[in-house]
Amino acid sequence: MSQQTAATAPTPFRRPVQFLAFGFGSGLSPWAPGTAGTLMAVPLYWLIADWSLPWYSVFVLAMAVLGIWICGVASRELKVHDHPGIVWDEFVGYWITLWAVPVDWVWMLAGFVVFRVFDIVKPWPISQLDRTVKGGFGIMIDDILAGVMACATLHLALWLL
Question: Of the candidates 116, 117, 97, which has an alpha carbon nearest to the alpha carbon of residue 158?
Answer without folding.
Answer: 97
